Amino acid sequence: MALKDALISLNELQASGIISDYAICGGYACVYYEVGQPTYDLDVLTVSVSKDDIHDIYEYYGKQGAKIENIYIYIKDMPVQFIPNISPLHEEAVARATELLFDDIRGKIVTVEYLIALLLTAYREKDRIRIQRLLDKADRSILLDVVQRFDDGQLYERYKEILA
Description:
Helices cover 49% and strands 23% of the residues. It has helices at 2-15, 26-32, 53-63, 88-95, 112-122, 125-134, 140-149, 155-163; strands at residues 19-25, 42-48, 68-69, 72-75, 78-84, 98-102, 105-109. It has a 5-stranded mixed sheet with strand order 1-2-5-4-3. The chain has a two-stranded antiparallel ribbon with strand order 6-7.
């Protein structure tokens, strides 16, 4: 159970004090909301304790003997990409994430509205497809609020384009 092992490890990482919080996003979040396609990796938004959090994460897993390849840290056989809080949107997405329970292991996953906003920031072809599939599951008033508050000059335009 790769996801179970990853959740256990993420909770241990948080308990160690290297990160203060986390939430799953990306393809696994899309699968959670039943709109996913198979995905290669587990994307995890992290909220840092220090400015060196990403370095500290790699060091933590390196000391445990985890395989590290390019941007991925392998937890058992699961490639995990850690995404540090590089924007207020990321930080709030983690803060407002919802709890998930997988085989009695607790974790956090971004809400569908924040997931859409995060996908709007990347805006690759696969993201646009995922957004279309997620829209019916979102509370449009919450989504619009998130998009408008975190608009960087492109977010709201991309949202309008998706709705057109």
